[in-house]
Amino acid sequence: MIALRHITLDCEDAATLAAFWSAALERPVDEGASAFFASIGIATRSRRPAWLFLQVPEGKQAKNRMHLDFSAADPGSDLSALVDRLVALGATAHDEHDEWGTRWTVLADPEGNEFCVGAPSATRVG
């Protein structure tokens, strides 16, 4: 059996990217963040995975082969408002979809890492 322990993002500036994800996730950046390494959640050891940000010399080259999918913590949340909040924090919205009983928006963080935010669709499948 395996368990998810960390979500690790390679990046150009670890402290800057950690600040974006800290605001997005509403979780503080751990002390000692630098351009080379930053973390969220290592210090608290909660049941949620910690996030690690590691500076690497190369930039992002292509679409992510794996990405993160998020939903609002409150099932009654407005998806548009959540996307607007993430864009205001520095994300870029790319595409909107409404398929298979789910609405979602594809976004990218400030360094171009894709992720999705979704909610149940008004038109349910099944």
What would you note in describing this structure?
With 126 residues, the protein is of the alpha/beta class. It folds into two domains: 6-55; 68-120, 2,3-Dihydroxybiphenyl 1,2-Dioxygenase, domain 1 (Roll). The chain is 18% helix and 33% strand. Strands 4-7-6-5 form a four-stranded mixed β-sheet, with helices on one face. A three-stranded mixed β-sheet has the order 1-3-2, with helices on one face. The termini are far apart. The model has no long low-confidence stretch (mean pLDDT 89).
* SSE topology string: EHEEEHEEE
Number of helices: 2
The CATH topology of the largest domain corresponds to 2,3-Dihydroxybiphenyl 1,2-Dioxygenase, domain 1
CATH architecture of the largest domain: Roll
The average pLDDT is 89
Alpha-carbon distance between the termini? 33 Å
**Biggest sheet strand line-up:** 4-7-6-5
Write down the CATH class of the largest domain: Alpha Beta
Name of the CATH superfamily of the largest domain: 2,3-Dihydroxybiphenyl 1,2-Dioxygenase, domain 1
Coarse structural class: alpha/beta
Q: Judging from the principal axes of the Cα atoms, what is the shape?
A: globular
Which residue ranges are poorly predicted, with pLDDT under 50 across at least 5 consecutive positions? Answer: none
Indicate how many domains the architecture comprises.
Answer: 2
Biggest sheet character: 4 strands, mixed
